[in-house]
Amino acid sequence: MMTVWGEQLDRNHVLQDYPRPQLRRENHTILNGLWDYAMTASDQPPEKWDGKILVPFSPEAPLSGVNRSLRPGEYLWYRRRVDLKAGPGERALLHIGAADQVASVYVDGCAVGGHTGGYTSFTLDLTEYLTGDSELLIRVRDDTEGSLLARGKQKTERGGIWYTAQSGLWQTVWAEIVPERYVRSLHIVPKFDDSLVEITVQAEDGPCRVEFDGQVYEGRAGQPIRVPVPLFRAWCPEEPKLYDFTVICGADRVESYFAMRKVEVRRDEHGVPRIFLNDRPYFMHGVLDQGYWPDGLCTAPSDEAMIFDIQSMKAMGFNMLRKHMKVEPLRWYYHCDRIGMLVWQDMPSGGGDYKLPVVTLPLLTKHHKKDHDYAAFGRADEAGRKRFYAELTQMVEQLRSCPSLVLWTPFNEGWGQFDAEKAAALIRKLDPDRLIDHASGWHDQGIGDLQSLHVYFTAYKFKPDRKGRAVILSEYGGYHHAVWDHCWSRKNFGYRNQKSPEALLAAYEELITGQIVPAMEKGLSAAVYTQLSDVEEEVNGLWTYDRKVQKLSTAVIRNINLQLTGCNQRR
Question: What percent of the chain has pLDDT over 90?
Fold first, then answer.
């Protein structure tokens, strides 16, 4: 099964857009394209190569040209030559958007570094190793659920809500030549109430400056530079205003952007706890977004494909996407920033085997376990728990400057959950200005600003939270309708079968009008419909898996959704 973007893919120009929109330079080289590959049982470099792979598509993805699965215990090798060398006073950096799960990098046979964690980017300084025509070798190991690392929805024996496991390089690989002293990252924090933005430049110690709106603001690396933004226009889905600025650090010059917005929970004029966006009660109505593609798996076949998903949901009247069990390339968040789409970001789940009673009984009993029972939640391994915090930190630090991102979810439905209060405290320390859904669905530990519910099999009726938190419906719906000529499998899975588009529309309209709208009026703050598209056997999407058939008309579903989101525009 292919998407239109996969069908039109130019294998000589794959995902060529600059990968890091909030830290842009002119001098870069995209290394996507055909590489040699091999799969081995040994951790030593292969003596012969199996063929060519199209990076950055995983070998399991049809677009890679490989269509082979890396098995637990095996190693996936990549090789290509790079014509790259730093001059005097320069550094040569290799950036890897994501490598699932453990990567090691070699230049001309010399080990130069690596990374653990399949969902976050990493950078290596290759300056001392590159000769101008060097052999770049990357080794990746991915044991999926045989490892305690984050794996999200991937499973070696896929089916139902679990999807094809992928491995290796699955986001853009690229290189930059930068000055000796360069900007490593930017931490951008809008101070909405103070009409300013704080910009912290991560670089070697020394002076740096920010240029914004014709003014220059001096500071030092590692310390917040406070930039006034008087009479600003607040960012929201209805008006996604972005402000451009420049950072200069020695000879290094980078372009970036920020937005002015804030999100919080507080009581409305009737004393009901609600989510506020920019000092106004704001109902967030979104869809669960798995971010899977039939031809690229976790890798969208093009920038246009990512844009299509975001814009089509906005056209249907949704104002939020819950990025479920996956971290996207930075360009995806950039498109949400500029198009105007709120983002709820999940931490991909991990740990040991999920015990069925622990993760399903709350549906029937409403009983929520305390999550310090590590064995029950598949988190008995101390090293695995430490790795979770390391990967969580990497994700938050990578994404925390994206304006559209307004909520973090460290745990979902008890999958690998443990010490959620501690995880929430870590997120709060790293990023004090966003909401946290500490336990989406169940195994609520009674903390934080939000009570988070999943309701699929019964009618939803709003009840205020006894602890005075705002209430969110972080998953609901899941109505499925199979468009058989566009199904990935003859098997199908969903929560309530609708035999025709007309039945699906009637069920969706009744759900919104009869359940969600009354709940919003009583105090519900947000709702997430399952889901954006079909994924493999799951056929509960608003689009088919190949994004070729839209199951409900844009105009009709938009009018239904306006019963929820229209109030945001009227305020």
Answer: 93
